[in-house]
Structure formats: C-alpha cells, structure tokens
Amino acid sequence: MSRMASTSADVLPTGSRIFTSIPDIFFIPEFVFGGLVWTLVASTLVDPTVSANPLGWVMFVSIFCFVMTTLWFFIFACGANQGGIWPSLDVAYHFVAVLLYLSASVALAYVTVMLGTVASAVPVLPPSILKIYRLDIAAVVMSHLTTLLYFLHAIFSALRWKSS
C-alpha cells in the first residue's frame, strides 16, 4: 500500500540534486540567457519620442523572471519545496514565465524589425545606430532562447507533475 502513496519528496529534488535532474537543470541556462536579455536590452537605445515602445515591457519581464527564477532556485536548493502543492506550482510558474517571455520576445522582435526597416532606408548607417541594431538582434535571439528554455522547463515539470 505504501507503494501507491507518492509524496512530493519523491518528485521534487532538493539541494545539489537540482543540478542533475530534468527539468531543474534548466535553471542555470535560464539565469544566463535571461540575464543576457536583461543586459542587452538595457544597453540599447530607447527612443523617448516613441510613446508605445515595448522595451519597458521586455525589461520588466526579463527582470521579473530573473528574480522569480532566483527565488524558485533557492526554494528548491534549500528543500522548502516538499509540500504537496509544489509540483503544480512549479508547472504554473514556468508556464506563466513562458507566456511572459513569449510576449516580450515578439515585442522585441517587432521593435528590431522596425529599426531594421528604418535602417535599410539609409545608405550608410552611423556606427552608433548599427551597434544598437546588432544589440537588438542579439537580444531577440537571447529572448527566444530563454523562451525555449522556460518552455522546456514547463513541459518537463508538467510531465513530472503528471507522474507524481
């Protein structure tokens, strides 16, 4: 009878086991790529004349997810994730992070495409604008990679939750 009873202690890792378990191994690349999105967007130019510039949303999402993932990581590392609700909270958080990052990635890609459209009309770009455009492209790539990482984390968390 005890074989049928499953506890979250069997499901969610704690301590150093989070570095060796799927999906929790995705924490580290989520930190790295999410931090890159944050720093790349922070180093681009925000045009104050554009009233609907979505870079503020991108910064909010990247900082929010970075902070929440850090808290989530420490909760797992300290072993405070051993209640019955934690597997479902893990799935919910990562799916919310996917939705947030997807919206931010699309907005960032849109801004970059618009900048590229404007830049293509100019025969020779000034080096400062070219640098900003390249930073925006790098931020779009990192943002989409971060979205993919959160999506994989969410899928594997959902599989773990379903099997618990």
Automatic annotation (TrEMBL):
It is found in: Membrane. The keyword Transmembrane helix applies. One of its GO terms (biological process) is myelination. It holds the Pfam family MARVEL. InterPro entries: MAL (IPR013295), Marvel (IPR008253), MARVEL-CKLF_proteins (IPR050578). It comes from the Eukaryota. Residues 18-162 form the MARVEL domain. Its main location: membrane. The chain crosses the membrane at residues 25-45, 57-79, 91-117, 137-159. One of its GO terms (cellular component) is membrane. One of its GO terms (molecular function) is structural constituent of myelin sheath. It is a multi-pass membrane protein. Keywords: Lipoprotein, Membrane, Transmembrane, Transmembrane helix. PANTHER family: MARVEL-CONTAINING POTENTIAL LIPID RAFT-ASSOCIATED PROTEIN (PTHR22776), MYELIN AND LYMPHOCYTE PROTEIN (PTHR22776:SF12). Belongs to the MAL family. This is Myelin and lymphocyte protein. The gene is LOC115559727.
